[in-house]
Amino acid sequence: MDNxxxxxxxxxxxxxxxxxxxxxxxxxxxxxxxKYENYQKQSYRNRCYIYSSAGxxxxxxxxxxxxxxxxxxxxxDKVKIDYSKKWQKQHWRAIFSAYNSSPFFCYYKDxxxxxxxxxxxxxxxxxxxxxxxxxxMIGIPSVPEFTQxxxxxxxxxxxxxxxxxxxxxxxxxxxxxYHQVFAHKYxxxxxxxxxxxxFNEGPNSITFFF
Length: 210
Prior knowledge:
Largest sheet: 4 strands, parallel
Order of helices and strands: EHEEEHHHEEHH
């Protein structure tokens, strides 16, 4: 049975999602993540953006090359993470450097750190385990389900192509500014990875969504 008909929001998987992505989940009665689409380069599926001492810093999870003779390797739930690149160490070092002095980094770091030491083979599974951990830390009760087949036409709000690093922020005027560690250097930067809000606002993060 297709579980998408009663869903109100359809999203792609995302690595340490943006604030607007989390807002879409929080404001949806029944969010669903597309499990059967093809992987797309240069998207949030394997990248996020944090606020470093040098400004906005992208963090990209490397993926294994797809087998051109096997269409399944292009499907997002089949995409494998490339652990031959030492990306976990690099990402954690960048996150630590960016947020170690933030008010709530020490409060949450132990829950996130295992994602940078343990190896989950599939990108889709990695993203969703991390997403559920973050939703729980914020206190957002909505846990996304997954599509049971590819959804071409969606009756609710389809965010799959709306949330993209090169597109304008949808909810930019929907939530206020908050303290950022390096705001004194570059000003407030909206819609970074959810960890930017979480590490800076802590338990107060949930008020930005409800």
